[in-house]
Amino acid sequence: MPKRKRGVTREAARRQQVIRKRERRVAEAHEKETMAQRSLERRAEETEERNISRLSVMAHSGEKRKAEETEEKINSRLSDMAQRGQERRAEETEGQRNSRLPAMVQYARERRLNVTEGENHHQIQTFYAAITVLYSLYI
Question: Where does the record place the STPR domain (predicted)?
Answer without folding.
Answer: 54-116
